[in-house]
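Board notes, transcribed. Complex of a protein with zinc ion.
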Amino acid sequence: MIRRNLRTIRFQKIAMSIYPVICPTCFEEFMVPLPAPDETPCEVDYDCEVCCRPMIVVFDEEDGEVYASARGIHD
Ligand SMILES: [Zn+2]
């Protein structure tokens, strides 16, 4: 039981290390690295990897899983 829990946590860490967001300017999807769950919620200034326009990426956590969403800097 304990071993299974450890394996699950390790798998989630790998799976959650990056997360796709949609650029609010060009609407292309790209991956952003996720912070640790205890560092959320937070907002990070980010430049789109496709069009290089600035945006805000919002990181939040739900049920132990970190997720990201992007919004324009003027929203
Ligand atoms: Zn873009």
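Helices lie at 2-15. The mean pLDDT is 85.
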